[in-house]
Design brief:
Layout lengths: L44 E6 L11 H7 L4 E8 L6 H9 L4 E6 L7 E3 L2 E10 L2 E10 L1 H10 L7 H14 L5 E3 L17 E3 L1 H14 L5 E3 L7 E3 L2 H12 L1 H12 L4 H28 L9 H33 L13 H8 L9 H23 L5 E4 L7 E6 L7 H6 L2 E3 L12 E4 H25 L16 E2 L8 H10 L10 E2 L2
Parallel strand pairs: 1-2, 1-7, 2-3, 7-8
Antiparallel strand pairs: 3-5, 4-5, 5-6, 9-10, 11-12, 12-14, 13-14, 15-16
Length: 517
């Protein structure tokens, strides 16, 4: 099923993907095992703050500090013994005096004791100055050298890689994720990202947001004006606000159709797209929740099925949304069409119904690029109608034992850039198997990349048709003939910014929403 003449599997990276989505909790970390166990309620989300790297200005970030101090989030401050008197470390200890403090007794590979091929060091935990516990930790320095030899991405100093390895080893038993600003965060060529979540401060807020949604919490408050609190009363409301944050021009089109033109077909279509994109976001959240049960590179059969089903569901809702938008577009270009059948995932639709009427719009090139990703998502959807897509396991690099949940790919996207974005690579074979290296996609990466691409595609499409009058359209709907005026930057509301951080989105700041009468 590989598209001839577009992208060949030989062009893909070997052994390790160029890009991976790493902002989800791995199984086996944390003091009580998987964060979302198959049976029983989830425990608290346990975070370790690498306080020597976190800037002191974060203490003034109300959203970040509020998220850390929730009752369902447990925070541990962690630093190396040599960093104990660094001013920023002391500031964090003063700001969070009730948190445990873990001190890592590691100086360098050369000065550490050894245990076989690994280095070994101690980690002491204190509470309000009194020692609570001490344990030994270890890591394999050879993996640092192998990571460097892989040569993926911008170079990272070896000292930072060693520090990251020691930090991850120290936290392996006690937390679900590490919050740091080190250059190793989120890098696919850093072995520690295979088995524990390393995230930056914004990533920590997003991780907390995912935990709150998956644990069913409705105690999510935001203070938009410094005085009153606004609470999200339902998870439906939370996902709905996520769409409003990420795709503001879809909501705008719905409002214009309803209040200015009373165009019920556009109102219904935009509401349908909105609902389906909300459900796609829920499916991705469910997939990431199930991925948290990976233990030593393995998933139980029930979790594998849950991951596969969530990915299937995401694809179905994403393409349903794009199909709905295509039918709406065909009808808006020519209101005399009685049964529109077009979908915006199709290149043929663009050639027939988009390109001729918006020939000089600056958004068109980006829409074409995103359309190729939507077409690839549709190929995957068609594939799951013919057979089932199973979550499998693949080594994340040619060395070590790190594994991730993947699907085997039988069709490829149109460009190498898209393949990198979707986390597609040629994985290392099992030593006992024969044949070519399998082409696989990291499920967490593909699921999140397709969702973000669909959101960007829908928002950019709505933005374009609201501000541009289609040239030579046969019988356009009124909503296409009253363009929007571009007048300054779009100001996002305080609640939008907060919900955007909880979902891990960058809140769009495009243009204003002033409509010409």
């Amino acid at each position: 099923m590989v598209d001839a003449g577009v992208l060949n599997a030989d062009e893909l990276p070997i052994g390790t993907p160029e890009h991976r989505f790493c902002r989800y909790v791995r199984g086996g970390s944390g003091s009580s095992g998987p964060l979302f166990p198959r049976e029983g309620a989830p425990g608290p989300l346990e975070l370790a703050l690498d306080v020597a790297t976190l800037p002191e200005r974060l203490l003034e970030d109300d959203d970040f500090m509020y998220a850390l101090q929730r009752p369902d989030v447990s925070v541990q401050l962690i630093h190396f013994e040599s960093e104990g008197e660094v001013p920023v470390v002391r500031a964090w200890k003063a700001a969070l005096p009730d948190s445990d403090v873990a001190v890592i007794g590691f100086e360098s590979v050369e000065r550490a004791s050894t245990m076989g091929d690994s280095v070994e060091f101690w980690v002491e935990t204190f509470h309000k100055g009194e020692r609570r516990s001490v344990h030994r930790a270890n890591f394999f320095p050879v993996y640092v050298d192998l990571d460097i030899a892989a040569g993926i991405g911008e170079p990272i100093p070896k000292g930072l890689r060693v520090r990251s390895a020691a930090l991850a080893a120290a936290c392996a038993r006690s937390v679900h994720a590490i919050v740091s600003t080190m250059a190793t965060v989120g890098r696919p060529d850093v072995a520690e990202n295979d088995w524990i979540a390393l995230c930056d401060p914004d990533g920590a807020v997003s991780l907390i947001g995912h935990y709150l949604r998956m644990s069913g919490s409705r105690r999510i408050w935001v203070t938009p004006d410094g005085r009153k609190k606004v609470g999200m009363q339902s998870l439906v409301g939370l996902y709905s606000t996520c769409i409003e944050v990420k795709i503001p021009f879809l909501r705008l089109m719905n409002q214009v159709a309803a209040f200015k033109f009373q165009d019920q077909e556009v109102v219904t279509a935009t509401r349908t797209v909105d609902a389906r994109l909300q459900r796609a976001a829920r499916a991705v959240d469910d997939l990431l929740r199930a991925l948290s049960r990976i233990e030593k590179g393995r998933l139980d059969e029930d979790s594998e099925e849950e991951i596969s089903e969530a990915f299937d569901r995401e694809l179905l809702y994403l393409i349903a949304a794009v199909d709905t938008l295509g039918r709406m577009h065909e009808r808006c270009i020519n209101t005399e069409v009685s049964k529109p059948r077009s979908s915006l995932h199709s290149g043929a639709t663009f050639k027939k119904l988009v390109d001729p009427y918006y020939p000089d719009t600056p958004e068109l090139a980006k829409l074409h690029d995103l359309q190729l990703l939507m077409y690839f998502a549709n190929q995957l959807r068609n594939y799951i109608h013919a057979t089932r897509i199973d979550a499998a396991h693949a080594y994340t690099r040619d060395y070590g034992s790190g594994r991730t949940a993947v699907i085997n790919i039988e069709s490829l996207p149109s460009t190498l850039n898209h393949a990198h974005r979707l986390g597609i690579w040629r994985a290392a074979r099992d030593p006992l198997s024969s044949g070519p290296d399998p082409v696989v996609a990291d499920l967490a990466t593909m699921a999140t990349a397709l969702l973000e691409s669909a959101y960007e595609f829908v928002d950019l499409y709505c933005f374009m048709v609201l501000k541009e009058v289609p040239a030579g359209a046969p019988a356009p709907a009124p909503i296409l003939t009253a363009p929007m005026i571009v007048d300054g930057a779009l100001t996002s509301r305080r609640v939008d910014q907060w919900i955007g951080r909880l979902f891990g989105w960058n809140v769009p700041e495009l243009v204003p929403t002033v409509i010409v009468d």
